[in-house]
UniProtKB/TrEMBL annotation:
GO terms for molecular function: methyltransferase activity; phosphorelay response regulator activity; protein-glutamate methylesterase activity; protein-glutamine glutaminase activity. The gene is cheB. This is Protein-glutamate methylesterase/protein-glutamine glutaminase. Signal peptide: none annotated. Its main location: cytoplasm. It holds the Pfam family Response_reg. Its EC number is 3.1.1.61, 3.5.1.44. It comes from Frigidibacter albus. The modification 4-aspartylphosphate is found at D57. The lineage of its organism: Bacteria, Pseudomonadati, Pseudomonadota, Alphaproteobacteria, Rhodobacterales. The active site is at S160, H186, D281.
Length: 348
């Protein structure tokens, strides 16, 4: 039997701490080693109890969770899952926490839904405890090319746990006139709106939440808005966005599988990419795209926070190859640029 995942619960609310503990105590994979009511208490208990992963609230007395997270990632990096009313409302705090290095952010349940709270927290903590915590500090990202010319291929990207940082890295390498790009990131609706707002001033292309009927144009990146709809593509000479109401797929809404499968009629005109994430969403849809003529690849294990979705895509042959995060933007642009078709003919 593998060792249990050691969890420290950090929250100023005794009610929430008790709810989390009761949810986790019933799982044999988890050992709750302690609780802390504020970051100062947490700091001492991290030293003495040596947890594998923390749950951390944003709003706490004496020092807020974001400030503590920043210090923790700089001085003693470790896996952290943020749990907060602030993140549940989709505030910028959730995205800031993910950008600082939190593995995932989930919301506290509403007062009238406490019994339903944290149903999947144990699964998340087990995965988070084994995730790769990125090293703090600035990273070198290749500058976007100044002479990019789009060749007509559309870009589809799926991501989950660790995706905020990965997507920012990829999109920072896109030029202003990048290929039309659709992204499905597993995240609650409010978080996705905040994520789009965060990215807008940081990247050269335009980025927005996808809307019904929006045309796929060069220089435009669309992010799945989440909520009750999946992001799909309406094929044709001028493909457009479609928001498709439906049940969760592969446990998610928005789902990467749904996005990828919608593009199968124009697969030869697509480049599909799977980034870091837990689970297997996107692998089957990518396999269908590759079979129909799309170019496909996945983020490699060494640079993935969680090598779940990319691993499955590679194992079933959906992804042609694994690519390090720092090279993904360049690989996309090479396949979607004017010279790509000529290079592929030579290679054949």
């Amino acid at each position: 039997m593998t060792s249990q995942t050691r969890v420290l619960i950090v929250d100023d609310s005794p009610t929430i701490r008790n709810l989390i503990r009761r949810r986790l105590d019933g799982d044999p994979r988890i050992l709750v080693v302690g609780e802390a009511s504020d970051p100062f208490d947490a700091r001492e208990k991290i030293k003495s109890l040596r947890p594998d992963v923390l749950t951390l609230d944003v709003e706490m007395p004496r020092m807020n969770g974001l400030e503590f997270l920043e210090k923790l990632m700089r001085l003693r990096p470790m896996p952290v899952v943020m749990i907060s009313t602030e993140t549940h409302r989709g505030s910028a705090a959730a995205i800031e926490a993910l950008a600082l290095g939190a593995i995932e952010c989930i919301g506290k349940p509403a007062a009238d839904r406490l019994p339903e709270g944290f149903l999947h927290l144990a699964d998340l903590l087990v995965v988070a405890a084994r995730a790769r915590v990125r090293e703090p500090g600035p990273r070198t990202i290749a500058a976007p090319p100044g002479d990019f010319r789009w060749n007509g291929r559309y870009v589809l990207i799926g991501s989950s746990t660790g995706g905020v940082d990965a997507l920012e890295t990829v999109l920072t390498g896109f030029p202003r006139d990048c290929p039309p790009t659709l992204i499905t990131q597993h995240m609650p609706e409010g978080f996705l709106a905040s994520f789009a707002q965060r990215l807008a001033p940081r990247i050269a292309p335009k980025i927005a939440l996808a809307s019904e009927g929006a045309p796929l144009l060069a220089g435009q990146v669309y992010l799945a808005p989440g909520g009750n709809a999946h992001l799909t593509l309406i094929p044709g000479e001028q493909p457009r966005c479609r928001l498709l109401a439906g049940d969760k797929r592969s446990g998610h809404r928005p789902s990467v599988d749904v996005l990828f499968e919608s593009a199968r009629p124009i697969a030869p005109r697509c480049v599909a990419v799977i980034l870091t994430g837990m689970g297997r969403d996107g692998a089957e849809g990518m396999a269908a795209l590759r079979e129909s003529g799309a170019r496909t690849f996945a983020q490699d294990e060494a640079t993935s926070v969680v090598f779940g979705m990319p691993r499955v895509a590679l194992e079933i042959g959906a992804a042609e190859r694994a690519v390090p995060l720092g090279r993904i933007a360049g690989e996309i642009l090479a396949l979607a640029g004017k010279d790509a078709v000529a290079r592929e003919r030579i290679a054949r």
